[in-house]
Amino acid sequence: MPAGARSKAGARPRFAARWDVPDDAPEPLPEPGRAALRLEVVMGALSDPLRMRIVRTLLLESEAFDHTCGWFGFDRPKSSLTHHFRTLREAGLIRQRQYGLERRSHVRVDDLEARFPGLLALVADWEG
Amino acid sequence: MPAGARSKAGARPRFAARWDVPDDAPEPLPEPGRAALRLEVVMGALSDPLRMRIVRTLLLESEAFDHTCGWFGFDRPKSSLTHHFRTLREAGLIRQRQYGLERRSHVRVDDLEARFPGLLALVADWEG
DNA sequence: CTGCTTGTACGAAGTAACTCGTACAAGCCG
DNA sequence: CGGCTTGTACGAGTTACTTCGTACAAGCAG
After folding, report:
1. Which partner from A60, A71, B73, B81 sits 20 to 30 angstroms from A100, CA to CA?
2. In 3D, which of B17, B41, B3, B32 has the Cα closest to residue B124?
3. Please, are residues A41 and A30 in contact by the beta-carbon 8 Å criterion?
């Protein structure tokens, strides 16, 4: 099945499909595998408004590549953002890669749709 | 619209539809209205495995009426169960009514499907 | 090398959540 | 009435989470 082939009529998600990761991209940081994703952990990660906003923003406004912490423009100390991005990664919501001195994130759309179909649509519809 | 008339082809939820509440039923305990439901609060309530199990059990195994705390058979002190059921009610997941000396609960299927379509299907599919 | 940038690690302080024991209220039944 | 049941209220102990300052590491530009 080709990557991004998500064309079931009438069920196309409103959030952007993910792109093809280039072969020379760095390895992802440690994260739970698809089978290890737990719904209650994912929901716990999304119970924080800032983290919900991070995922939603990545889902709706991200271009065809990963984004750094600073791209979001949050007015919070760096150590706080580190905490929230790590929480999202350890819950399995985002994948992070280290590009030089930047750490870029994107939503694990495929894994989340496979394990929890419809969950990302709820996040996309969230009114912050 | 008859109760349980949820027959969009291929999208029928696997959990039991709710029943008609009799006219002489007690008033529900204080709860947030449909418009006041917040996705991050609902997810926070579901981030506890015991509470996830309560909602899932109500969804899949409940008969055509409300159920008491004791019906679940949890091996926890009563004061702990009070805490979790109240958390679920205040988050808007369940509705509670006082019948004599029992307090019975059911999932707010209509409100939750209207505000967060697909969320209850995720709960029903949860592997505890 | 010197600075600048991105982000981590660590720790501390404050807050919130969970668990549970005890005491109490309210309804039902003998 | 007295006892039984269902569940609450309150409080304490513990744990977990959040927030953030500071110090540090690593990459890049000059």
Report:
1. A60
2. B17
3. no
Is B2 (CB) below 7 Å from strand C?
A: no
Three-state SS letters, chain B: CCCCCCCCCCCCCCCCCCCCCCCCCCCECCCCCHHHCCHHHHHHHHCCHHHHHHHHHHHHHCCCCCEEHHHHCCCCCHHHHHHHHHHHHHHCCEEEEEECCEEEEEECHHHHHHHCCCHHHHHHHCCC
Of A47, A104, A27, nearest in space to A72 by CA:
A104
C-alpha A58/C-alpha A69 separation (Å) is 11
Q: Do B39 and A117 touch (CB under 8 A)?
A: no
How far is A96 from A4, CA to CA, in rounded Å? 19
Give the pLDDT confidence score for residue A1 in this predicted structure: 44
In chain A the domains, ranked by start, together with CATH numbers, are 34-125 (1.10.10.10)
* Residues B36 and B113 sit within 8 Å (Cβ to Cβ): no
Q: Among candidates B96, B100, B127, B114, which has minimal Cα distance to B13?
A: B114
pLDDT bucket at A63, cuts 50 / 70 / 90: low
pLDDT one-digit tens code per residue, A36-50: 999 999 999 999 999
Q: What is the pLDDT of residues B71-104, one digit of tens each?
A: 898 999 999 999 999 999 999 999 999 998 899 9
CA–chain centroid gap for B105, Å, is: 7
pLDDT at res. A55:
96
Residues of A within 8 A of B112 (CB-CB) are none
